[in-house]
Amino acid sequence: MEGETFLWLIRHAPVDGAKGTIHAADAPADLGDRVQLEALRRRLPPDAASFASPARRTVETARALGLEPALVPEFSEQDFGDWT
Q: How far apart (Å, rounded) are the C-alpha atoms in residues 12 and 60?
């Protein structure tokens, strides 16, 4: 094996909704903190592969970082049923 491999784990932006709530997969991300998103985007390698759960907030966060992630259903959050 040559070189180094880095794994970047990035949590989605905050959910645009009530705090302390378990949100459904279609809940949007709050992408209002453009300064923080841009600072993170500048640190990411330009040619990195990206993967995300199919949840709306994860896809929106990835795209705000300039990524076009492959969607991986196995990365989906736990289903809390009626609580969600």
A: 8
pLDDT digits (tens, 9 = 90+) for 15-62: 987 887 778 888 899 999 999 999 999 999 988 899 999 999 999 999
* Tokens, residue 71: 């969607």
Sequential DSSP letters for 9-44: --PPPPBSS-TT-PPPTTPPB----HHHHHHHHHHS
| Paired tokens of 9 | 């784990």
CB 74 within 8 A of CB 30: no
**Burial grade of 77 (CB within 10 A; 0-12, 13-18, 19 or more):** middle
Smallest CA-to-CA distance from 55 within 73, 80, 32, 81 is with 73
Cα separation, 73 vs 55, in Å, equals: 9
Specify the pTM.
0.85
pLDDT at residue 65 is higher than 70: yes
